[in-house]
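This section describes the prediction task in plain terms. A model, or a person checking by hand, is given the sequence of a single protein chain and must write out its three-dimensional structure as a string of tokens. No templates, partner chains or ligands are provided. The sample shown here is typical of the held-out split.
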Amino acid sequence: MMRVNRTFSIPVDLVHELRKKHNQSETVTRALRKYLDPSYEHTLNDSTTNMILQELRLRFEPKSPQYELVKSLLTIIS
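The expected answer:
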């Protein structure tokens, strides 16, 4: 695959996060492909779902209507 170097402006905080990645070019390529692909559907993996549920537990009391609603939405989209 042919590659072309381009310069774009992005926020500094994204630069700092991107520096933590092993292969920055591949990370940016994957992100742009997802962004530009209209058929792309975001799916959650188990670790992402667990992280979201942990955050919900901190924000809402377990078994509250808000917690249960978001939990059921996570089930639908994952």
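For orientation: The chain is about 60% helix and 0% strand.
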